[in-house]
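Write out this protein's structure.
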Amino acid sequence: PALLHFQSPNPHIDFAGSPFSPVSEDREWAGGNSPRIAGVSAFGVGGTNAHVILREPPPVAPTTESARPVLLTLSAKTEASLDLAAKRLADHLEAHRPSLSDAAFTLATARREFLLRRSIAAGDLDQAITKLRAADSPVTASGERKKIAFLFPGQGSQYGGMTREAYDTEPVFRAAMDECANLLSGLIREDIRSILYPAAGQEESALTRLDQTSITQPCIFAVEYSLAQLFISWGIHPSLLIGHSIGEYVAAVLAGTFTLRDALHLLSRRAALMQELPGGSMLAIRAGAGEITLPDGIDLAAVNSPKLCTVSGDSQAILEFQRSLEASGIASRVLKTSHAFHSAAMEPITGVFRDEASRVHASAPAIPWISTCTSGFIDGSVV
C-alpha cells in the first residue's frame, strides 16, 4: 500500500542511488522463490521510532478430505442461538464451499463449548447443509467431560486384513503403524505390514503367518496401539486403561509405564519364547468359573465376567471338555490361538522372561491402569 500523506521525497536522501524508493501508489507485489519480507516503520514527531519486520507465512498444505463422514459440532447458551449458529454455518458452507474436513476441525478445536449442543455427521457439503437446516433438538451437556476407558483385547482377536482401510485412509493410524513396523523389523525379522495388509494373491500365506504366535502378538499390539493413537487424535482421551494379555502392553505404553520401543522388545521376546513351547488350545465358556469342574490338564486362564470364563490346556483335552460342556447345555468356543496361554504350560519360560522383563525400565503410570491379573490399580510400587 502507498505511504499515507506522501507527496515528495526528502531531497537529502539519495533514493536514486539506492535499491529503495518511497511507495507513492499501491503496487502489485508478486511472490518469488523466497518468502516476501517487509519492514514497517513508524516515526512520530515526539521521537517515536518503531520498526516491525513482517514475513509471509509458509504455504498452507492442501487438506485431504476424509473418506468417511465428518462430525460438525455446534454449541450455544440458548436454543435460539444454537439454531442461528446452525443456519449461519449452513449459509457459509453453501456460499463459500470450503473443505468440510477443515470446517469440522475448526468447529471441534477452535470454538468455546457451551452446555447446549448439536452435532451432525455428513459425508459432503450438500448433506451437511441439509442437516444443518433441518430442525433438531439440542442436547444439554452435563458440564463435565465424560470419562472414557480404553480396553485392549488379547490373542484370538486377530483376522486377515484387519484395519487395512484405516491404514489406507487415516494418516495418524498409518504413522503409528509404520512406527511399530519399523521398530519390530529388527526384532522379528518381518514387516508386519506385509502380513496385515498382504498384496493380492498373498492373503492365504499372510493369514497362516498371522496365526503364528511370534507374529500374532506383535501384530495385535501394533493394531491396538495405532487405533488408540487415532482415537486420541480425534480428541478421545482415555481416563482409564485396561488390557488383557497382549492388550496390557498397549495399556502400559499409553500410561507411560513403558516406552514403545521397550514394550515391543519385551512383547517380541515373550512371543518368541511362547512360540517355542508345545502347542495347545483355549476355550471360551459361557459360564462362570464356579459353575464348571475342570478336568486334569486344563487350567482356568481368565475370569472375564461372572458368567464367562476361559480355560487352557492340551488341544485334545480341550476338545473333549468342550463336548462334555455341550452335553450339559453350556455353550463354548475354541479360540484362535496356537498355545495354551495363561496356564501351567507357560511355566518353562517364566524364568527367562522374568529376567528379560527385569532389564526393562518401568515408570509409574500417568493414566490410571487396572491390572487384569490382580484387578487392582497399577502404581509405582507394582511396576
